[in-house]
Write a structure and sequence with these properties.
Elements: H1 30-33, H2 44-60, H3 70-81, E1 94-98, E2 105-108, E3 112-116, H4 117-122, H5 126-141, H6 144-155, H7 174-183, H8 186-189, H9 196-212, H10 219-236, H11 255-266, H12 276-283, E4 287-288, E5 296-298, E6 301-304, E7 309-312, E8 318-321, E9 326-329, E10 334-339, H13 346-358, E11 369-373, E12 376-387, E13 390-402, E14 405-414, H14 422-427, E15 429-430, H15 433-437, E16 442-448, H16 455-459, H17 468-476, E17 489-494
Parallel strand pairs: 1-3
Antiparallel strand pairs: 2-3, 4-16, 5-6, 6-7, 7-15, 8-9, 9-10, 10-14, 11-12, 12-13, 13-14, 16-17
Helix pairs in contact: 3-5, 5-9, 5-10, 7-13, 9-11, 10-11, 10-17
C-alpha cells in the first residue's frame, strides 16, 4: 500500500481474437493439437486495449521494478514471447518485471507479458524464466482469457457472501469500483484460476516455445516442482503468516501430475540451454518479500514504516497488500484498508466513504459514532444492505492520523456479524520510530558452497524464524538430503 491514491476499476480481462500455435502431432493434449495451425498477428485493436490496461496493472501490482535485473528479464521475455507467433518482432511485446511480493506471472492480449520479482526469485535458471513467461503467452495464444472472463463474472466481487444487487454495491461507477477492489480485485482475476485443461494447453505451448528458442524443455517441469514445494511451505505457514498469496499457475488439484506430465512432454522435444550461471549472477541482490515502501505483512500484522501505522487481522484471515490498499479476506467476511481525501472532518470522511460504496444509492448507515483508538480520533458506522435475498452489514471505520491524512476500513460481513472485525479495528495505531527503523527488507543472495557446507548449514543463514530448511530447499529446487558440491552456486535470503 503506497501513499494516497484513489482506487480505480481494473478492466483486466480483454477478450482476445488471437489464434494459437498448433503443437507438433502427437506431442500434446488433443485440445492443444486442435488449436489453429498458425497464430494471428497482434491487431491494432488489441494493442490499444493492452495499452489501456497496462498502467492499471502496474498500479495494482506494485509498479514496474526498475533495477539492474530489469533489462535481462525484458530480453528473455521478448525472446520467448516471439516464439508464439503472436508478433513477428521482439518489439511487438512489452515485458515487465513487477515490484510485487507474490508468486505471479501473466500475459494479456496486445503483447504485454508480466512476471513478479518474487516468482523470479523462485527460479533457478534462465530457461525456467522463459518457461514461465512462455506458459503465460500460451494462455493468450489459446484465448483462455476470454473463457476465464466468463468464469470470473460468475464468482467475482462478493465471493462467499453471495452477490448483492448491482444497484447497491455492484452498480456502475464508484460502487462497481469498490466492489471489484475489495472482493474481486484485479489480483483475483489474475490468480490464474484456469481449468486443468487450460493449464495443460498452456504447458504444452510453453514447452514448445522453450524448444523453439533452444532452451531445455524440461525447465517448465522443474519450475512447477519448485512452485509445488513453495506452495507446501505457504500452507504450513498459514497459521503464523496471514499473507494471501496468489500463486502462479495453480497446480490444483494434483501438482505432482502436472510436474510429471510436463516432464514427459519435454522428452519429445529438443533443446539444452539453461543458462544457470548467467541467471544467478543477474538474480543476486533482488528484493525478496515485501518492499517496506509499500508496507510489510509480518504474521497477522501489517506495518507501514513510511505511513507510520500498523494493524493486525483476526486469526484465520489473510492479507493481500496492493499498491493502494490492503485487502483482508476470510471464510465469510472481507475488508479493505485504504485512504481517501481528508480535510480534517472525520464525520464527512465516513459519509464520503459510504457514498463511494453505494454509488447512486445512498446507504442508510444511521448515526456516525465517534471514538478514540490507541490515541487516534476515530469514527465508524454500519449500514445493513439487502438485495437478491442476501443481507450483509457494510461497516466504515476511519482514523485521523493528521489534519490532512486519514485511513479507513471498508468491511462486508454477514448481517449481525460485523463484530468479527472489532479486534482489527481496535488494533490500529501509530508505528513507533524504533519499530519503523527495525523493518528491513529481505534480499536474495547468491553464495558459493564451501567445503563442509550442507543444506542445513546454509539454511541456517535464511532470514526467517521458521521452516528454514524447507524454504532453502524450495528456493533452490533441491531435496532436504541433497549433497552440495564445493563451488556450487545456491540462493539464500538475507537482510
Amino acid at each position: 500500500m503506497r501513499m494516497a491514491r484513489r482506487i480505480k476499476i481494473l478492466t483486466l480481462m480483454i477478450v482476445s481474437g488471437v489464434g494459437a500455435v498448433a503443437l507438433v502431432s502427437g506431442q500434446a493434449t488433443p485440445q492443444a493439437q486442435a488449436l489453429v495451425a498458425q497464430a494471428q498477428s497482434i491487431t491494432a485493436s488489441e494493442k490499444r486495449q493492452g495499452a489501456e490496461v497496462h498502467p492499471k496493472l502496474l498500479e495494482e501490482f506494485g509498479g514496474a521494478y526498475q533495477v539492474a535485473q530489469t533489462p535481462y528479464v525484458v530480453q528473455v521475455g521478448k525472446g520467448i514471447a516471439v516464439q508464439s507467433g503472436l508478433g513477428n518482432a521482439r518489439d511487438d511485446f512489452t515485458v515487465t518485471l513487477l515490484n510485487s511480493p507474490v508468486n505471479n506471472a501473466f500475459a494479456i492480449p496486445g503483447g504485454y507479458v508480466y512476471v513478479t520479482r518474487q516468482l523470479m526469485a523462485l527460479m533457478n535458471d534462465e530457461a525456467e524464466l522463459a518457461g514461465v513467461l512462455g506458459h503465460e503467452v500460451g494462455h493468450v495464444a489459446a484465448r483462455h482469457s476470454e473463457k476465464r472472463q466468463r468464469a470470473s463474472q460468475r464468482n467475482s466481487i462478493i465471493g462467499l457472501l453471495g452477490q448483492i444487487g448491482a444497484a447497491v454495491l455492484l452498480g456502475d461507477g464508484a460502487a462497481g469500483a469498490l466492489g471489484q477492489q475489495v472482493f474481486g480485485t484485479g489480483t483475483q482475476l489474475l490468480t490464474l484460476k484456469y481449468s486443468r485443461r487450460q493449464e495443460e494447453e498452456a504447458d504444452d505451448l510453453g514447452v514448445r516455445y522453450l524448444s523453439s528458442a533452444g532452451y531445455d524443455p524440461r525447465a517448465l517441469s522443474s519450475m512447477l516442482a519448485s512452485l509445488a514445494g513453495q506452495q507446501a511451505i505457504d500452507s504450513r505457514a498459514q497459521g503464523s503468516d496471514a499473507r494471501s498469496v496468489p500463486e502462479w499457475a495453480s497446480t490444483h488439484p494434483d501438482p505432482a501430475r502436472r510436474v510429471s506430465r510436463a516432464a514427459t512432454l519435454a522428452a519429445r522435444f529438443s533443446g539444452t540451454q539453461r543458462n544457470r550461471d548467467v541467471f544467478l549472477s543477474r538474480l543476486d541482490g533482488l528484493l525478496y518479500g515485501d518492499d517496506p515502501k509499500q508496507g510489510m505483512v509480518q504474521g497477522r500484522e501489517f506495518l507501514h514504516p513510511d505511513l507510520g501505522l500498523k494493524f493486525a487481522v483476526p486469526q484465520g484471515y489473510a492479507m493481500q497488500n496492493g499498491t493502494s490498499s490492503v485487502s483482508i479476506t476470510g471464510q465469510s467476511s472481507q475488508a479493505q484498508f485504504s485512504m481517501a481525501a481528508y480535510s480534517g472532518d472525520l464525520t464527512r470522511y465516513v459519509d464520503q466513504a459510504f457514498r463511494a460504496v453505494g454509488g447512486n444509492q445512498q446507504l442508510n448507515y444511521g448515526q456516525i459514532q465517534r471514538t478514540t483508538v490507541n490515541g487516534l480520533p476515530a469514527a465508524f458506522a454500519t449500514a445493513r444492505v439487502t438485495s437478491n435475498r442476501q443481507t450483509v452489514d457494510v461497516t466504515i471505520f476511519a482514523y485521523s492520523f493528521a489534519n490532512n491524512r486519514a485511513y479507513h476500513f471498508t468491511a462486508v460481513t454477514p448481517a449481525g456479524q460485523s463484530g468479527v472485525f472489532t479486534p482489527m479495528y481496535q488494533s490500529v495505531r501509530r508505528l513507533s520510530g524504533t519499530e519503523a527503523a527495525g523493518i528491513r527488507p529481505r534480499r536474495v543472495r547468491v553464495v558459493t558452497v564451501a567445503r563442509g557446507d550442507s543444506v542445513q548449514s546454509l539454511a541456517a543463514r535464511m532470514a526467517y524464524d521458521d521452516l528454514k530448511v524447507e524454504r532453502f530447499v524450495a528456493l533452490n529446487g533441491l531435496t532436504a538430503n541433497a549433497a552440495l558440491a564445493p563451488g556450487q552456486k545456491v540462493k539464500i535470503v538475507t537482510y
